[in-house]
């Protein structure tokens, strides 16, 4: 009798497991899109980083596909996020640059140019098909009382920074949760504060005023874990827009230990960024902190049995920050991976970014692709993965064939960017060729710089004079790839 009971229990267990597996395999897949903030092309171990430890992202690359020619939507935060959410490049996007509103203090918090509700986001499409949707992290596309409220753009749940300026401090007085102020146990201090000239920069006590109790990135991490657990029966879409490693240099002290030996000179603060006693250690620890977030997510998916039904994509909104800004020594870390330029310009270091995709059983492990792709491709990719028809008025092309190795991957004829701070500039890629036009405000007929990325990825030799036919083609692409922006200052 006991033997029969054991057999019946075993049969019940196997039937339940098969039923659960069948349910998981027949429902639409979950999608987790993780967006780092200012993470450079060379700042992960799988992309050649030698100092900063990123074991979880390296594992993600080993268990999935890594892209070597992946590009951001823009070279700064807000427009790049707009490109992801709407599937449009900078010639057609509603937001084409950071457009600040309000000021730096809590009382002046005004966010950035609000995303128009006429724009259709990937979250709206997914929610219309029964997906639970969440954006956790940094938004940068409007405040709660504007048309840019994330809850008006397809997200059931939002938690994090609405205003990018507030994200210059990881110990803020508050974050936002579904349009409501969420108070944190931190005192207000301005990100423009710096150490007084007479301060003892060697003393740890000197830096205490710039620390708080509630680390914003930890609050976000907990919301991410909670959302995945709550929505495990799916399908769900999680857009985790981590603020890391965007400045200021702030990380819990206990996470500095592995890198404490890197520093000899403290950073006193300035230019809108807070001081830190160990700037190199802090920057490295922040990236390792982001890496641990990814590890927690992957481990949780495994625990919940969701690995085979969840596509995870990791990338960055633009290249690493300006060398020396905010105390970051990007040269020391080789943050740009040997590429020219950085955040705020359209050279490769400003827009070529790491990109990794993992989907157990669907994406072959340890694969590398040089397929030319950009931020606006994730919109149609997620649509196809989820069985949704993508909108016709987007610029992206689904990456599903190159991800899974099934079907024929459509290629971009060219990629296009424009950026309006610093005098306005344009860039385009056509095959192996890269063209840039700079300072268009000052000189609307600025000459084209031309680079052969195949043989000169560092953009060290302008070969425009030797290739007039290519220059003519690039001129055509740069002219025809844009439509007028409703924001007049974003028109040449």
The overall pLDDT, averaged over residues, is 94
- Structurally, the number of domains stands at 2
Poorly predicted runs: 4-24
Number of strands: 18
Give a structural overview.
- The protein is of the alpha/beta class.
- It folds into 2 domains: 28-412, Alkaline Phosphatase, subunit A, CATH 3.40.720.10; 418-490, Arylsulfatase, C-terminal domain, CATH 3.30.1120.
- 25% of the residues lie in helices and 16% in strands.
- The chain has helices at residues 2-26, 55-62, 77-86, 122-128, 216-230, 279-303, 330-333, 348-351, 378-386, 400-404, 468-480; strands at 30-36, 65-67, 70-71, 100-102, 109-112, 132-138, 157-161, 174-177, 180-183, 236-241, 310-316, 355-358, 367-369, 373-374, 415-419, 425-430, 433-437, 449-452.
- The strands form 4 sheets. The chain has a 10-stranded mixed beta sheet, with helices on both faces.
- The longest helix is centred in the first third of the chain and has 25 residues, at 2-26.
- It is globular and about 60 Å long.
- It starts with a helix and ends in a 12-residue tail after the last helix.
- Residues 4-24 have low confidence and may be disordered.
Summarize the structure.
With 492 residues, the chain is an alpha/beta fold. It is built from 11 helices and 18 strands. The protein is 25% helix and 16% strand.
Structural descriptors:
16% strand, 25% helix, Arylsulfatase, C-terminal domain, 2 domains, Alkaline Phosphatase, subunit A, alpha/beta, 10-stranded mixed β-sheet, 492 residues, 18 strands, 11 helices
